[in-house]
């Protein structure tokens, strides 16, 4: 089984981190292929960057030369999963939805701890669209930019763990979801600080993707995610410089 794990930003060190986390979660016989988009922002922290990332991720997947069995979109709260589902005949798993759906097996309600406050509405909207918001106790911001997660890991862990603890104590969350692909690898330390299950979206997405492939299931094509209709699209893809 081969699974493409696509970073939504263009920072290769984050792609590498996501790839290591996905590989660690994969079953024997599952090959993880990390991909970095060829264009887009170095980090995705708002709507403009998210829509740009959606196109970049779709193009990265379309350009991949080898066959694959599933795709993971490794961005929390980002746009584009629906477009991938139209384009592909294999399962597409978004880490936002994988984490939240997994959390609901583990407790009555969950909270998400993410990066900046401006990303909170994107995550709330994604959970609502996916039908996963009813059991979401809160979405909390750590106040760290995505790239800050790499620059000072100790400060990142402290900020994320603090908000996770507040979600458990103040919002009555029973499970925590790490709300950024760049937070991969922080699970155990947040568990130590909170005492509740902590779900990493990349890890959860790998197991969901493996399960769907193993069951022989993929996206329905009868209506919402039917393939795009053939038509002329002007000036796309753009010419290579």
TrEMBL record:
Domain of life per record: Bacteria
Pfam families attached to this UniProt entry: Asp_Glu_race
InterPro entries (alphabetical): Asp/Glu/hydantoin_racemase, Hydantoin_racemase-like, Iso_Racemase_Enz_sf
Family that this chain belongs to: Belongs to the HyuE racemase family.
Name assigned to this protein: Asp/Glu/hydantoin racemase
